[in-house]
Amino acid sequence: MKMNKALSSLYNYLLALILLMSASGQIQAAQTDSNWQYFFGGYLTTTAIDAETTSYTPIGDQVIEIDASFSDLLDNLDYGLSGIFIARKDSLSINLDLVFIGLTIDQPPATIEVTLREHEFYAGYAMFKQIPELEVIGGVRYIDQDIKVTTPQPQLVIGDSWVDPFIGLRYLGPINDSWNWLLRGDIGGFGVGSDFAWRIDAGATYRFAKQWEAAIWYKILDMDYETGTAGTPSIYKWDGSESGVTFGIGYYF
Description:
single chain; 253 residues; mainly beta; Lipocalin; ten-stranded antiparallel beta barrel; 12 strands; 62% strand; elongated
């Protein structure tokens, strides 16, 4: 049931990709009298996970350690896709990031299937005149986790979803005429969703045509989340990090 939900989300994401790309020419023609600029990118995402999650079982709360390292990445990764949309005018940017990740991890005697959906909506503002490429960013991050653990014992299906506010900085400054830095750091949660969360991105973009850009960056997202009461079905904890390399292309219009 939950895997069907993940596949449905993946299908909707791919459909949105096609619709946005096919509509880009129409948007570009319509913005003749507008100062808004738009960017859309589609990317492949690799992910390693080092985390502990806690959930209720009839015999007591169970701690599950998830260790999906980079060395086992090709065996673990079922899919990893992300899309980024940016609308920019003067010093203001409006940003939407969508991430879909599916992993299957063999940890004998268990097999763990992890489905992650991480979506961000945030604004950026370049408020430093001396460094116009540096933006203050702030927004919300929606997290949805589905975890299915299959063992010789009855199957365990756990997960939760929550929303984290976050604030941070992003730098998209030039290296040379074709290359640009892609740097970002933020903190969030603040007890609203996670107790605390932080994210760091580091990479670069390469403009290989007037309106086309390639990008590669390394991302770490760490979250400490807890909800419910220990010893009851309401308990769910996630304490750990995701890290990986994302690469793909984007289009300015």
